[in-house]
């Protein structure tokens, strides 16, 4: 079982790591090649693009869970039907989103808080990002479906190829061609086209169970996958909310220097988070598949293996940050005061990923066994309920230093609360036994 888990988890985790590193490189190119205002404009649009990614992840995880469950239950025809419905629905949705973003780009960026100095840059970035909305969002969903169709390495190769293309074109469009922020958006879109192009032959040439074809969208199927996938959407929105709450608290307590230190912590933390998320995405097809087979023992074992893997992975990152933290932070800043603050923040903040890994693993686990309400509850605990309370109390009691422990405390409270509300093993066993009885 461990070898099967690693077969899926390692390619997925590595692909997520590459995606996270690409985001950092992209930011460096935009900042150095276009200017600080361009970087600020991208950050203005970020909450909106995060929401779009959340929509794609909702379709990918929700659809992937249903597809893998039906493959495990030997209902191949139904799995293919669901896959085709998801693709058709997502294609229609992305065309609509693309048109809305292009036509109403200016009102959207104003709503997101763009100043007059940033408005033009933000509008340009959003418009050109939206033009490539179809490959951007469809690519994320197809990547999940390829993994659920038993090809985790193909999913990894497609993401890596897209990221490398993106990085190369970022440099070419921003520096030699001088396309500015438009070039960054176009590079992102073309990178996603490469990702999609690598995956398409798998479905067109019928190399797995899933294939393209005509299908009629059924309200019930779309409703089911949206319910299952909603926590993935909420997780993306929660990330933006977590950043916002931290920024507001840090500005009030420490000022701009605190926000600068937090941005560095975010860059480092994003890499850890993406690897942990990748491990979980690798486990999801295995959990869903065995859920479809009514094999409750394997469902629970894969969940436990994923939990252990996330703890070990986090431990490696934490040791690296404690030993090489100052050198890593030095990549982002030369300011000694920010470096010291950020190093303290990183040492304390990275400890939270022990709980983060367990919590996101549990979120996707409950989605995989079609218990999305518990996944949604975890998302709300993490961001909306426990985090603001933790930051407020810790900042009042311990001052600035207490803020950096906010995520650790909120994630720990979330882990405790969800286990008090629904013991994982008991809830899972009962749900699967009930499914067996009613099958």
Question: Overview of this structure, please?
Answer:
- The protein has 439 residues and is mainly α.
- It has 17 helices and no strands.
- The model is unreliable at 435-439 (pLDDT under 50).
Brief account:
The protein is 87% helix and 0% strand.
Question: What is the mean pLDDT?
Answer: 87
Query: What separation lies between the terminal Cα atoms?
Result: 26 Å
Main sheet overview: none
Structural class: mainly alpha
Measured by DSSP, the beta-strand proportion falls in under 5%
The DSSP helix count reads 17
Helix proportion: over 70%
Order of helices and strands: HHHHHHHHHHHHHHHHH
Global Rg: 21 Å
- Net shape: globular
What is the total tally of β strands? 0
Q: Unreliable segments (pLDDT under 50, ≥5 consecutive)? A: 435-439
Summarize the topology.
Layout: H1 2-33, H2 36-72, H3 76-103, H4 105-111, H5 116-131, H6 133-148, H7 152-174, H8 180-204, H9 219-253, H10 256-292, H11 296-329, H12 336-349, H13 353-368, H14 372-398, H15 400-403, H16 406-421, H17 424-438
Helix pairs in contact: 1-2, 1-7, 1-10, 2-3, 2-5, 2-6, 2-9, 2-10, 3-5, 3-6, 4-5, 5-8, 6-7, 6-8, 7-8, 9-10, 9-13, 9-14, 10-11, 10-12, 10-13, 11-12, 11-13, 13-14, 13-16, 14-16
Label this structure with key terms.
mainly alpha, 439 residues, 0% strand
């Amino acid at each position: 079982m461990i070898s099967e888990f690693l077969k899926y988890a390692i390619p997925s985790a590595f692909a997520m790591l590459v995606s996270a590193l690409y985001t950092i490189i992209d930011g460096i190119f935009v900042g150095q090649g276009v200017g600080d205002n361009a970087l600020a404009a991208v950050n203005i649009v970020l909450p909106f693009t995060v929401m779009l990614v959340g929509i794609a992840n909702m379709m990918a995880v929700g659809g992937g869970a249903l597809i893998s469950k039906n493959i495990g239950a030997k209902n191949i025809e139904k799995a293919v039907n669901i896959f085709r419905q998801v693709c058709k629905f997502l294609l229609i949705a992305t065309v609509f989103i693309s048109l809305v973003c292009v036509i109403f780009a200016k009102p959207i960026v104003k709503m997101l808080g763009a100043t007059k100095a940033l408005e033009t840059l933000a509008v340009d970035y959003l418009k050109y990002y939206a033009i490539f909305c179809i490959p951007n969002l469809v690519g994320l969903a197809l990547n999940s479906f390829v993994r659920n169709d038993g090809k985790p390495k193909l999913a990894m190769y497609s993401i890596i190829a897209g990221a490398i293309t993106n990085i190369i074109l970022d440099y070419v469009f921003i520096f030699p061609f001088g396309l500015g922020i438009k070039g960054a958006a176009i590079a992102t879109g073309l990178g996603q086209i490469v990702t999609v192009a690598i995956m398409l032959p798998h479905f067109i040439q019928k190399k797995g169970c899933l294939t393209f074809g005509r299908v009629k969208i059924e309200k019930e199927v779309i409703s089911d996958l949206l319910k299952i996938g909603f926590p993935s959407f909420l997780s993306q929105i929660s990330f933006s909310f977590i950043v916002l709450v931290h920024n507001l608290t840090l500005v009030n307590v420490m000022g701009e220097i605190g926000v600068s230190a937090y941005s560095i912590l975010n860059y480092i933390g994003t890499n850890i988070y993406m690897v942990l998320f990748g491990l979980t995405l690798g486990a999801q097809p295995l959990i869903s598949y065995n859920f479809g087979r009514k094999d409750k023992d394997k469902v629970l074992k894969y969940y436990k293996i994923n939990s252990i893997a996330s703890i070990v992975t986090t431990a490696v990152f934490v040791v690296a940050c404690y030993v090489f933290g100052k050198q890593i932070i030095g990549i982002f800043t030369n300011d000694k005061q920010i470096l010291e603050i950020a190093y303290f923040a990183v040492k304390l903040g990275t400890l939270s990923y022990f709980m983060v890994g367990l919590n996101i693993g549990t979120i996707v686990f409950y989605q995989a066994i079609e218990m999305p309400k518990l996944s949604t509850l975890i998302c709300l605990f993490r961001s909306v309920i426990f985090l603001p309370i933790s930051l407020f109390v810790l900042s009042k009691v311990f001052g600035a230093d207490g803020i950096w422990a906010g995520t650790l405390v909120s994630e720990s409270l979330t882990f405790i609360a969800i286990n008090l509300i629904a013991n994982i093993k008991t809830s899972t066993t009962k749900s699967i036994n009930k499914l067996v009885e009613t099958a």
